[in-house]
Amino acid sequence: MADRVTGILLLRYDGAALLQHRDDKPGLSHAGMWAPPGGHAEPGESMLECARRELREETEYDCADLRFLMSFDATVEAEPAQQLTIFWGWYDGTQPVACHEGQALAFIGRSDATNYPIPAFVIEIWDAALAAAGATTRSMLPR
Predict the structure, then answer these.
(1) What is the DSSP string of the chain?
(2) pTM to 2 decimals?
(3) Is residue 73 pLDDT above 90, yes or no?
C-alpha cells in the first residue's frame, strides 16, 4: 500500500505560493529544494485533516478553506510509493506564518520560480492551482 502524503499550495492573490526550503539531508526527498508544506497522513486521518494539520504544524497557518486540487501516484527515488494529494487555499493576508520545518519559508512569486530550485512537478501543480483559482484570482487582484 502506498504512503498517503499531502501537499498544500497556499496562494496569495498575486499568484505567489508559500514554499518551504527543505532541509538538505541525505535521503530526504527533494532535499535542499523549495516545495509546498505537507507530509504523511496518520492512520485513520483523512487527507483534508492531514493537510490542515501539516500546514499548522509546519507554518502555524490555519486555512479553514482548503480545496482539493488533485491526487496522483508519486515516485521518489529510494522511497516507498506515495499517493500524493494536493490541496490549495488562499492566504488571508493577516495570519503570520512561521517556519517550523525546513530551512526557510517564503511566498515566492510565480514569475520568480525559475530563480529557485523547485521540483518540476511543483511548478505543474502550482500552475494547476492558479488555473483552478482563475476567476477568483482575477476578480481579487488590485487593478
Answers:
(1) -PEEEEEEEEE-TTS-EEEEE----TT-TTTTSEE-SEEEPPTT--HHHHHHHHHHHHH----TT-EEEEEEEE--TTS--EEEEEEEEE--SSS-----SSSEEEEE-GGGGGGS---HHHHHHHHHHHHHHHHHHHHHS--
(2) 0.88
(3) no
